[in-house]
Every structure is written in C-alpha cells, then in structure tokens.
Design a protein that fits this description.
Chain lengths: 208, 208
DNA sequence: CCTACCGATCGGTAGG
DNA sequence: CCTACCGATCGGTAGG
C-alpha cells in the first residue's frame, strides 16, 4: 500500500471517500458519520480518509455537495430542456419520483434526510443546504408562475404553495416506505403531486 | 442536594429529564442526545440522569413515548369527538397545523424529525416509532374511508394516497420554515391539505 | 496515505 | 441522586 499518489489517483480517492460518506450519511445522518468508521469502511487510516478535507466539517460540506450534485443530475437535469411551465413541472415530478423510488443511497434520499437533520442546527452545513434548496425551490416557483401565465394553472394559484406541496410530497417517500413498508409511497406522492397541479387523474396509477 | 427521593419526586424528576431530552432531541436528533450533555443541562450527574432509564436505548424509547404523547394530545385529542369522516379529517388538519406552527419543542415537530432519523436505522426505536405512526396512519385512512362512504370524497379516492399526502404536508412545515425562513409554511400545508381533500378554497388563506 | 499519538467525551457501572 | 472511575471511541495532529 501507501505513499503519496498522483493528482488523478487522489481525485479518484476523494470521490470514493465522498461516495462512502454519502452512503453512510444517508443511513445514520451526516453528523453520525465518524472519521473512524468511515476509514474502516474504506480500508484506510483515519488520517488518510480525513486528510483530503481537513476536518469533519469540511468533509460534511463536501459530502453534502456530492449528494446535491447526484440529486441535480438525477432529478433536474432530465427536465432541463423541457418547455418551461407545466410541461417542465410534470417532467420534474416524474424524474423526482423515479429517483425517490430508486434512490442513489442506501438510506434513501440524502437531501430530504439532511433537511430534517440540519433544519434547526445553525452552522455552515445548515447554510449550504439552505442555499441548495433555495435554488431548487426558486426553480419550482418559476415554472409554476409560467404555468399560471400560460393558463395551465388558475390565476388564483399560490405558486409558493405549489412549490411547498411538491417538496413535501417528494420528501415523504423514503420515510413512509421504510417506516411502514409502503411500497406504493412514490406512487401516492406522484398522484398527490398531479392533484396539486390540477392534473387529477386518479386512474393513472402506475409509475414510469 | 442529593440523597434518594420519594416516589412522587422521582416521577417528577423523570418527567423533567424526558422533557429536557425531547427538547434536545428535537434540535440535535434522538441519537445526538448524550448522557453527559443531558445531565449538564439538568444540573444533574450522569448517573442521576440515566439512572431512571437504565441505558441510552431505554432513554430514547421513553423520550419517543413522551413526545408521542404530546403529539397525541395536541393533534389527535382535540379532534377525538368530532364526527368521523370529513369533519374529523378537517379538525385533525386544523389542530395539526396549529401544532406545526407552534411546536412544543424548540427544534420543531419531534415526530417528523424522528421519522427521518430512524427510517433507515433498524432497531427498537425504529420499531416503536413505526408502531406509533401506523396507529395515526390507520386513523387517517379510517376517516378518509368514512368520508368516501358519506360522499364527501369521490368514490374513486385512494384513501392511502390521502393519508400519505396529509402526512407529507404536515411533516414539511418545520424544515421549510427553518431552512429558508418560510413563515407561511403551515399556511401552505393547510391549503394543500384542503386541496387534497377536495375543499379547494384558495382564498381562505389565514390560519386559526 | 500510514503509524502513533493527543485530550476530550462517549455510554456505562460500583459503591454509597 | 452523587462521586469516581472504566474501556472505547471521538476529532484531530505530528512526522514520515
């Protein structure tokens, strides 16, 4: 083993560490990832694992960014080039629910879990998470506004309420499936989303 | 200070410990409550604080039950004697959103946070939490069924979807308020709930 | 990226 | 309900 590695190897190692940290954090929380167990799980020394980041806070921030990038690629990127407004809202809901149904991390959606872990804990992780979520929230609000202007949502629509509703429904998929074994959680979320968007099709009850 | 206390005093102490533990857990998670900091916060010794429960797991289970009882009293009890079906669903949503808007614990709704902390962590806390939530879920489903039978919801209604949607919307109030300062989170949740229940009143936008 | 180490805190217990 | 203590693990660092 051992010795210093090349820049490329170091970058690969860094990604491996972040992937492992994100997996652990999705199950035990971002605060629950300890340097010791992370290193053991990677077959590395503690100094080797944490050295790429400096300290635990920086590791947490890097892990959050890693998971946020996965989330962006899986949920937002597929809908990026869809027509703004209702078409894009529906595309986002579709990719979001596919992701919620088959999450990239063993403990389920990382972002949803982190938003409950750090909502009442001030600090850099809270702030970084809020910044990510504000961007996504603004995107939902913008598309809802466009949908109103296009006449796809009633003029009386509260676009903030729409965004809130979609976020709430998406986040609940993991806990409801994992807590009381509701295998249809993503389907319920999807149907409720369509309901909030006025696309009430109670019969179209299959995913994908 | 010190010395053993009477049964009544011990019971009071026990409640004080649980109240303090629930406050801490609502902010830092149930796993984040350490015996040492709990004791310090209570001006007690570690042995004094944990002695009432035996070990940390038993403390966690007792804290969960404590918070669940607060939740039951605040959310379910006010609606207990309301007519089953849609009237009771609306009453539950009302008390639920009042509670979400003014939660009993500094970190917000304890139950919602715990359901994200323990959804992917097997063990006694997961199981106890799931048991509580299953009871509440069954209550929502039962009232939704009654509402369908009474004609207050369409015959095609998926009652599981209704329960899922209400749970999702209620749980999201705390994180959205605390992460990006949405003071209208409870209001958005309430309006979305009414939407899911077919009581779409986009103009009635004031709480309580 | 490793070994070897630091002080602090963890959950828990013996004994009073 | 306290003091005093246990081994284990925490985050972090020096030095190579």
């Amino acid at each position: 083993m051992a010795g210093r590695r090349s820049v490329v190897e170091a970058s690969n190692t860094r990604q491996s560490i972040l992937s492992c940290a994100a997996d652990m954090a999705s199950v035990e929380g971002l605060e629950g990832v300890t340097v010791g167990r992370l290193a053991t799980s990677l077959n590395m020394s503690k100094a080797g694992a944490i050295g790429h980041f400096g300290n635990k806070l920086e590791l947490q921030l890097a892990t959050l960014d890693f998971a946020a990038e996965v989330f962006r690629k899986e949920v937002w990127q597929p809908a990026e080039h869809v027509t703004a407004g209702m078409p894009r809202l529906l595309a986002i809901c579709a990719s979001w629910m596919e992701y919620a149904d088959r999450p990239a991390f063993p403990g389920g959606c990382f972002i949803a879990a982190a938003s409950f872990e750090f909502d009442s804990r001030p600090g850099p992780v809270h702030d970084a998470l809020a910044a990510h979520m504000r961007r996504w929230h603004a995107q939902l609000v913008a598309d809802a506004k466009t949908a109103v202007e296009a006449g796809d949502l009633p003029a009386s629509t509260d676009v903030e309420q729409i965004a809130f509703g979609l976020e709430a429904l998406a986040a609940r998929v993991t806990p409801n499936r994992q807590l009381y074994g509701d295998e249809r959680a993503a389907e319920h979320a999807r149907d409720s989303m369509l309901n909030l968007l006025g696309q009430r099709t109670r019969s179209s009850s299959s995913l994908a």
